[in-house]
Structures are given as C-alpha cells and as structure tokens.
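Intended use. Records such as the TOD1/MUCI70 glycosyltransferase-like domain-containing protein entry shown here are meant for training and evaluating sequence-to-structure methods. They are not intended to support clinical decisions.
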Amino acid sequence: MTGGSLGIRAGSYGSLLNIKNVIAGGGRLLHSKSFGSVRKNPIIMLSGSREKERSLPSIWYRYLGRRNFSMLLLVAFAVLFFVLGSFVVNKESNSPNVDQRIGTMSMAHYINATRNEASRILGRRNRQKGGDGNRFQASVSKGANHPCANFTFPPPPPPHLRRIGPRPCPVCYLPVDQAIASMPSSPSESPVLHNLTYVHDENPIKTEPHGGSDFGGYPSLKQRNDSFDIKESMVVHCGFVKGSKPGHQTGFDFDESDLAGLQQFHEIIVASAIFGNYDLIQQPRNISEEAKRNVPFYMFIDEETEAYMKNRSMLDSSKRVGLWRIIVIHNVPYSDARRNGKVPKLLLHRIFPNIRYSIWIDGKLQLVVDPYQILERFLWRQNANFAISRHYRRFDVFVEAEANKAAGKYDNSSIDAQVDFYRTEGLTPYSEAKLPIISDVPEGCVLIKEHIPITNLFTCLWFNEVDRFTSRDQLSFGMVRDKIMAKVNWHINMFLDCERRNFVIQAYHRDLLEHMPPPVAVIRHPPALPNIITRERNQGKKIPRHGKDRRSGSRHHHKASAGNRESNFF
C-alpha cells in the first residue's frame, strides 16, 4: 500500500521535485543558465566554423582538414563550458553549516503573493514601529550566531518561469547532528497551567441539543466555557471518557499487544493515520540513521484499511510497512472516517502519555525531511512549543467557511450553524487589529508540538469543538487559540505554508490513483550529429537534379531536415 512515484503531486498543490536547473548555495539560488549550457543549432555552429576556417592560415587546412577541424572546435567548446560550469558550481554551492532544501523555482511567485498580502496587512503597523527589515527573513531566537541567521528567500524568477498556485520555498535546516545538539534539555514552561487531568465518565448523557458523542462525553456549554478559564490545575473533557485508559474499552480501542508499547517514553514520535481506506501509505525519505533508531513512526489504521492491506499482501504479522509501525483501531467512535482521523491528530498526548515532541502529518503526505531538522527549525529555533502552517491563501474564518461550502467539504447548514455560534461569541472577520496574529486559518495537515500542559489543553479544546460542531478543524482553530491567548501569555508559530510544502509532499488519494492510467514511458534518443562525413565526401561533386519539382522538393527536404536536427538539440 506504499505510494509510488505516480502518486506524488506535481501540479498546483505543490511538490518538492528534484531540481535540474537550480543550484543551492550561500542562501540564494543560482540558475544553471547563468553559466551557460544552452546547446546551439548545429547548422549555426558549422557556419561559424567555416567563417573561422577562412581566416586561419592555409596550413591548418592541410594539416587537419575540414572534418578534423570542425570536430576539434566542438570539443574545445564542450571542454570550455564544462570547466566554467564546474568552477561556478564548486564555488557557489559551498555551504557547510546549513542544509537548504530547495523547492521549485516557481515558488518565488507564491512568495511574492504572500509578501504582497502580508505587506498589505502589516505595512502600516511596521512603519509606525520604525522597522523596515525583511519580514520574511528567518527569525532566529537563538542569536545572530545561528548558521541560518542571514538566510533570506531568493529573488523571484523571471516572469516566464513563474507558475501560479502554492509551491514549496527554501528552508534553512541545520545538519542533523547540530539539530540534535540544539534539543532543549528540559521541557518548556507551561504558562499558568501546570496540572491537567481529564474527565472520566462511564455513562455520558447528552443534555443539550448541540452535537457531541459518547467518545467525547457530551460536555455542556457551561463546561465548555469553564475549560477556557485557565487555572493552575484543570480537569477537562478530552475524548476517551470511558474505560480505564485510552484505547482500552473507550472506543478507538487498540490491540492489547500495542497498549504497552504506547506507554513507553520517547523523546520524539512521528504519527499519521488512514481511515476508510482513503489513502496510500507514503514512506518517509531522507531520514537520518539517528532518527531511524530513536524516532518511532506510528500509522493508525481502521479495520477497513487493515483488510485492504492484508488482501494486497501489504501487511503481515509484524505490523510494519517500511518505517511505519501499524496500529489497528477497533470500535471507531464515528461513522465519518475523517472525523475518526481527528482523534490521533489532536489527542496524541492521550495516546502517548510519555513523549516530549510529536510531528503529525496527514495520511496523504510524504515526509521528506528529518524529524530532528523539522523540530529545530519550527520549534527550538523559535522558542515555540506549537507550530502549524497558515493557509496559503485564506486567513479569515468567514472566508474559509464559504470556501468549504462551495467545495462541498461538509453540510452547509452545519457550517453556517458553527460560524453563527462563533459570531455570537465575538468572532469577527480578520483585520490588522489582531496583529501580531497574522492568520485565523491554518493549513492543518501538519502539527508540530511539544507535549506540555498548555499545548495539551489547546488540542483537547480544539478536539472538543470538532466533536461538537463540524469536522472541519480549520473553522475552530482560531476561536480556541484566541480564547486561550486571551488568558495566558502563549503563542503559536504559524509559519508560511510554502515552508510546510518544503518538508512534506502531498499525494493523491487512493481512489484517484487507482483510476489513473499507468505512466507512459518516454524514450529520449541522443541528438544526431551533423553529417560532416557525407558533406566532405560530396565536396566538389555536382549532384545532378532533374526537373523543377525535384529541385524544389529537395530544397524543402533540406530545410525540414535542418529543422528536425535543430529541434532534437532542444
């Protein structure tokens, strides 16, 4: 069930493809055309060589001949281009302190759009503060000596190379060993809240007309409101209200053989899920040996997905698929597979009570950067304990709600009811009055989290909104975040979505992949060399032509052949 290359997006949703014509170095991009490698038309090259032959002494003709002189000229040009190209690459790509993974060149068009949007929102406020620095420069909380302190985005590409839509952009990562060394030795301080426990209720009863579930415990509106009053010790609803411990007779149950392993201590885990047999497992790439030894990768699947994988001989008794450890879920609490996926996404701290950091990626994503590098870049370097990318286009909840309705993401009346409820609680359209908050809408397919009480509370309350209202977690994110931030000094690192697209690649869902035609193999033949031998043999010989039609047809054939040779070189 591992996704192949066919499943990797290369269209408008962004992909991290291998670059053929971009070279990283010194925090900037160097286009390969800058040091010249464009192949010339062989006809032009031959004519140029003839001009040079006429200006040379006759001894070169007698000693080398036309054929050898032309070949020598071609070899000289090739050696010259190779030497110059190697010199530029070796000079510009020397960056021993940082690892800059580069997206496609067209990402700069997206950066320009983001810069314009942010400038419109932030411009006046920044001018009032007297600052005019690059707002898109990597903010370094560890001091100016950080290897990435001077990293900035490259300039935009020429207009003819720009492509619309979201794209990955460059991110400055530390090498894995330096990233590991920068891991904090002790947990971050949790503001105000120090002791968080969870409601246990074997017989939850629905007392209000709003949504909810047995799994979530049906918290009342009063209990909901009280949960936003941050105190030193709190007891809140956070799923798994039944049973003695999460995963044991709670709904969303694990096999007994898995329960003990989930209680073990880990510094870092990576987690994902596939429910309803909706996606193909994507194997992580570029994972260091340290991460393979010390960072477990957990994939949660339901029984439907398990049956599919066993029928395809993708899953055996080892419960491993590549790097992923498969955890089968029984007695799922919801009929909606996407809502079931929100349980491990938002409640990892309940499933894994003894971990420090987690990286969540949706099942459709492929991780292509080492976990240590991701945590260093988006948490440790920023002195943050929760990170999520903001939406690449929308930053207003009301606009996001309309987009969800237009795309048929959920029942329209349920979306309207949720947004209307938030409006009564004071939700307003986004404006610069919310600065330094720059977006109310996340691109919630990746969560990077340190497990401390305040972040655990945040994801608990976020899950309660998903349980009560729609499963579209983008709609409830901003409301929960703002209510907590109004009570305590806490923030979320909402980084650029193009940076997220740098370390994960989005694949197509399984049903789309299975209906795609197989890829067509493209056979590329090497370009034909100019027919110098034939021309030399026929030099001085007059080839008879008979008739006007034969003469015009020959000229047409000669032009067509030249055109074909020219096209082969490009």
